[in-house]
Amino acid sequence: MKVLITGAAGGLGRALAVECALRGYDLFLTDVNEGGLLSIKRGLLRRFPVKVMIKSCDLTSERETGELFQFADRNGWTFDMLMNVAGIDFEGGFLERSSYNILKIVRLNIEATLSVTHKALARRNGSSKRFYLVFVSSLASMYPMPLKAVYAASKRFLLSLAYALGQELKSRNVSVLALCPGGLPTTPDALAGIQAQGFWGKLTTNRLETVARRTIEKALRGRRVYIPGVVNALLSFFGRLIPETAVAKFLYGRWSKAQKLRFREQAGGAC
């Protein structure tokens, strides 16, 4: 099995790479963070007898994305699995963020993911061999999310895309999974966000290693959606039963308090 992972230098990408290596899969890893890629490559090669190739790439650049796949082609890489992990968010309200940052969410979470996915699938050249496609969506994709509106909408796009492509490409032996996690302790910013949410943040957070293992298990089984954690699955179920205006009102109150607490703590730490 040969696996392409985008956003591989981040917490979830790294955890997925380790889980793949544990299974003996060869890895092609990309991220905008070249130093992070070098670090994970060295760690994987020390621990596992697998092939690891890395190439830094800004996936929001169509030129660099094209060069990424040309590099893979020259080195004889044909992929059996693509894990679209790369994504970004900027905390704060819609009008509090610059238009550049808002559009960057769309460019990376949606446009870049579409570009990578299309290029990877096009290179199958009519192959009947099983191909596994994973989109990292979010529990946020299930709801309208004030104060995280663009991020949640971008992840909802990926969830809808996964459902649609799963049906469209089924006859071509392509299995599509949408991963919809709650909180993940991937970065210091992510940890701060989880802590600011208090009880609910801890309750909806999942261990990276567990999410990585079960994501691959469910992809191989042909599952369409994976929501890690019983609590998150229940929140998703009941969220569908409540009018979206009511959900938006509740979430606005929750995120307003969490973000005020977080920004207050950041300001206190800067003094």
Output the CATH homologous superfamily.
NAD(P)-binding Rossmann-like Domain
Residues in β-strands, percent: 5-15%
What is the number of E strands? 7
Return the domain count. Answer: 1
**What is the average per-residue confidence, as pLDDT, rounded to a whole number?**
88
The helicity comes to 40-55%
Write the layout of secondary structure elements.
Layout: E1 2-6, H1 11-22, E2 26-31, H2 34-47, E3 52-56, H3 62-74, E4 81-84, H4 99-122, E5 131-136, H5 149-168, E6 174-179, H6 188-196, H7 199-203, H8 208-220, E7 225-226, H9 230-239, H10 244-270
Parallel strand pairs: 1-2, 1-4, 2-3, 4-5, 5-6, 6-7
Helix pairs in contact: 1-8, 3-4, 4-5, 6-10
What can you tell me about this protein's structure?
With about 270 residues, the protein is of the alpha/beta class. It has one domain (about 1-270): NAD(P)-binding Rossmann-like Domain (Rossmann fold, 3-Layer(aba) Sandwich), CATH 3.40.50.720. The protein contains 10 helices and 7 strands. A 7-stranded parallel sheet has the order 3-2-1-4-5-6-7, sandwiched between helices. Helix 1 packs across helix 8 (about 210-220), helix 3 (about 60-75) packs parallel to helix 4 (about 100-120) and helix 6 packs across helix 10 (about 245-270).
